[in-house]
Amino acid sequence: MKASAVSHAPPANAAGFAARYPLLYSVLIDPSDKTIIRASIAAVLLYAAIMAQGVMASEDFVLDGNAIIGGDMVVFWMAAKTLIAEGAGALYQPDALNTRLNAAFPLDGGFRLFWQYPPTVYFLVAPLGFLPYPAAFAAWSAATAGLAAAAIRSLWRARLPLIVGFASAAAYQGWITGQTGFLTAALLALAAGHADKRPILAGIAAGLLTFKPQLGLLIPIAYAAAGCWRAFGAAAVTGVLMAAASVVFFGAETWLAFFDAMGAHSARMSEVIFPYYKLITPYGFFMTLGAPSWFALALQGLASLCLAAFVFIVWRRSHAWETRMFTLITAAALATPYAFYYEAPIFIPALIVLAKRAMDTGWLRFEKQALMALWFLPVFTPGPDYIPVPALIAFAAFALCARRAAHECGVQFPKLKTLSNA
Fold it and tell me: Is the pTM of this model over 0.85?
C-alpha cells in the first residue's frame, strides 16, 4: 500500500508459526499485498457469480424465495414512478406505492412497504422513474458505489485499500440490498474527513445527509467540539436550502404527510412482527434478545448519550482527521435506534482510514486480525431472527475504532478498586 508503514518484527511465537505454516500465516496473521489482492479478486468474482445466478434463475426479476433482484432499490424506482404519475403526496399513502409494486412484481402475499423518506430525497430518486427497472438498478448501483469510491479516494489515494474495501462483505450487502448504504457512506466520509481542510465540502455533504437524518445526529456535536464552524454553517445552510426547494417543488403538504408517516412508523416499530434482528443498533440488539420496548429504548438513549460524549471528547482532543473520522462514522451508526444491516457500507471508509492510521503510526495488538474479520463477517447478515448478528458486527467495528481513538487521545477508562478492610 502506498503509505509510510511502520514495520515490526513478529514475536517469537508468531515467527515460529510463520516458519511452520507459511500459507496460514500469510492469510490469517500478516497477509502480503499479493494475498490481499487475490482474496479481493476471488471475493468479487464470487459476488458476481452469485448475482448472475440469481438474475438467470429469476422470472421478471422475482426469485423463488419471494425476493426481488435489486432488493429495496425497487422501492426507490417505484417511488420515482409514483412521484411522476401521482405527485409527491401519494408516496406517503401505503396503498398507492404497494399497488404499483404488486402490479409490477407479483410476490406471494404482496408488498407491505412504507415510504419513510423526507421530501428532499425526491431530488435523488426522481431520475430513476424515467428508466426501465434493469437500467435503473444498474445506474443506481454504479452511481452510489462510484460516489463512495470517489469519497474514499479523496481521503487516501492508494488503490489497494479501495479494492479491498469494495471486495468486502459489507460492499456485497450494499449491492444486493439496493439500499442507500454507498450514498450515506460517501456523505459521511466527506462530512467527517474534510471538516478541517475543506469545511464547505464537508458541510454540504452533512447537509445532503439530511435525506436520512438519523445517521447525522452526531455531526453537529463533532463540529462544535472541534470548532469546525464553517462546516457547521455550510451544513445548516445546505439542509435549509434543500428543505426550501422541496417545499417549492413538491408543496408544504408533503412535509406534513411525511411527519404523519413517521409517527405511524414509530408505532409499527413496537409491533412483534418488526424485524429487530436486522437492526445494527443497541435498541435492535436488546429487542432481539426479548427485552421490553421501554427498556430497550432506555438503553438506546443511554448508549446514544455515551456515544455523543465519546465523539465530543475525541474531536476535542485529537487533531488527527483520521481518528476523528472513523470515530464519528462508527458511532453515528449506533446513535440512532433505526439503522439496518444494509447500512454496512458506511463502515468501509471508516475501517479503511483506520488501516491508514495504523500503517502511519503502528498497529495495535490484534488490530489487523480484527480488520480482516470485519472484512468477511457481514456476509452472515442479517442472520437468524433470534441472534442480533448485525448489531454484534456493528458493535465490533465501533469497539475497534474506539480502542484506537482512546489510545491516541489518552482516554483512561475507570478501573474497579478492590475493597479491603483497613
Answer: yes
